[in-house]
Amino acid sequence: MNELDKKVEEARRRSELNYFLYLNEKAAEEVELLQRAGRCGSLCGVALAVKDNIEVAGMPITNGAPYMRRIADKTAPAVRRLMAEGAVVLGKTNMHELALGATNVNPHFGPTKNPHDPTRITGGSSGGSAGAVAIGVADLGVGTDTGGSVRIPAALCGVVGYKPPYGKISVDGVYPLAQSLDHVGFMARSVRGLVRILSAVGWAPQTLPTIKRFRFAVLMGVAEPTRYVEKAFWRAVEALEGIGGMRDEVFIEASKFSAARAAILLSEAAANYYDYLRSSISYMGRDVATLLSAGAALPAVAYITAKKVKEEATQFFNTLFKTYDVVVSPTTATEAVPIDEAANIAVRPKLLAYTELFNLTGHPAISVPAPVSGLPVGLQIAARDEDVLLAVASAYEEEAL
Predict the structure, then answer these.
(1) Is 125 a catalytic residue?
(2) Is the distance from CB of 281 to CB of 296 less than 8 angstroms?
(3) Which of 62, 99, 56, 95 is nearest to 79 (CA)?
(4) Rounded mean pLDDT, 2-10
(5) Cα–Cα distance measured from residue 266 to residue 14, given in angstroms and rounded to the nearest whole number
(6) Which residues of 60-78 are buried (b: 16+ CB within 10 A; e: fewer)?
(7) Given this structure, which CATH class describes domain 3-200?
(8) Alpha helix locations (H) across 273-354?
């Protein structure tokens, strides 16, 4: 049994975690055909776990909603580019319905379960991809991130989650949630592994710059983290200082930015799924139906005002990045909560408060594991310069982990 067959078998064996909605039983065969034809490139046999709102030709796509299920007739350019170097899609992964949520508790396909404690959430909406990476079944998770949907599950599952800058990776072939905020993002078990894969297709530098001294800002006043998250976060900050980071603490008033992102998200999501809201609301999960209905009721002035605040937020962080190489925060303000508590109204803002800032501004951001001995916690690093961001994250990883 070759390596890809072992991965498929392991995914099947761990099916109780509920990461895959579709498994590609022919993954190994597809790679063998490429090898025989001499067309298996630098990513030959790299296993991809692709979120089920992203098209892969010949495979089902649901967008986390059975009422949308169909067989895709094309492959999204983001996936196609990886496949051109020999990567293979191992399967399509479970997600929050319509990608409109941060817990990955899906009422139709069931919740994805945290690999460190199956009674807890993975986070979402790319939770299946993050979980598949965490248990070693996938080498790269491919997901989408509109408010933190790659970085949140990466943090809660103990892997790396990277959101490139807005517009860098094509979102063609991806079901839109909110076009002004949508990003394609990636999950891997390490920053080094992430960079190796992304550099093969020109999405990261072959060699990262050497970082000896840098200035970083700790974002304060955004949300109140749990004591467990706070303790892990400050350990991570110490590791950043250990690799040459010079720290300041910067207080920001994030509530206006959060409200603007919510108004943009809900307005655009309601427009994208208005027909389904009318025809399938009785089939939708309560949280998704409520959010779409709220978006449909928002006045145009709220959306236009929110777009102005988006520009203000972008300028605010652009100014901050003139002083600081990177800014850091916890990825989430809470560790993974129990699945049966995921619907609590307090959970959503705890998951989104830090990550959503950089969907609003479009700056690149990465979540890397913080030093812990229990449930995973993520350190979020954001920057204006991608190469600097990845270099700091890589140096931190070597120091902290």
Answers:
(1) yes
(2) no
(3) 56
(4) 95
(5) 35
(6) ebbbbbeebeeebeebbbb
(7) alpha beta
(8) 274-280, 286-297, 300-323, 347-352
Q: How far apart, in Å, are the Cα atoms of 380 and each of 36, 128, 150, 234, 392?
A: 42, 20, 12, 12, 11
Task: Report the pLDDT averaged over residues 285-296.
Answer: 98
- 292: tokens are 């779409």
Secondary structure element (H or E) that encloses residue 339, with its range: none
Q: Residue 232, by phi and psi: left (phi above 0), alpha (psi -120 to 50) or beta?
A: alpha
Residues 6+ apart with CB under 8 A from 381: 326, 327, 328, 365, 366, 368, 389, 392, 393, 396
Which letter, b or e, does each residue of 7-37 get, where b requires 16 or more Cβ atoms within 10 Å of its Cβ?
Answer: bbeebeebeebbbbbbbbeebbebbeebeee
Query: Phi then psi for 72, rounded to 5 degrees?
Result: -70, 140
For residue 401, pLDDT beyond 80: no
Q: Following DSSP, what letter does each residue of 83-124 receive, concatenated?
A: HTTT-EEEEEE--SGGG--SS---TTT---EETTEEEEE--S
One-letter identity of residue 151: R
Q: 149, 267, 367, 394: which one is catalytic? A: 149
Where does the chain hold its CATH 3.90.1300.10 domain(s)? 3-200, 214-400
- pLDDT score of 400: 85
Residue 306 Cα to chain centre, angstroms: 23
- Quick one: CA torsion of 199, 200, 203, 209, rounded to 10 degrees? 10
Q: Tell me the pLDDT tens digit for each residue of 342-384.
A: 999 999 999 999 999 999 999 999 999 999 999 999 999 999 9
Average pLDDT for 289-308: 98
- pTM attached to this predicted model: 0.98
- For residues 165 and 182, the answer to whether their CB atoms sit within 8 Å is no
What is the amino acid identity at position 29?
E
1 pLDDT band (50/70/90 cuts)?
Answer: low
Q: What is the pLDDT of residues 194-252, one digit of tens each?
A: 999 999 999 999 999 998 899 999 999 999 999 999 999 999 999 999 999 999 999 99
Residue 293 has pLDDT above 70, yes or no: yes
Which listed residue (7, 125, 180, 267) is catalytic?
Answer: 125
b/e code 211-224 from CB counts within 10 Å (16+ = b): beebebbbbeebbe
Class of domain 214-400: alpha beta
Rounded-to-integer distance, Cα 72 and Cα 89, Å:
14
Greatest Cα pair distance, the chain, in angstroms, is: 60
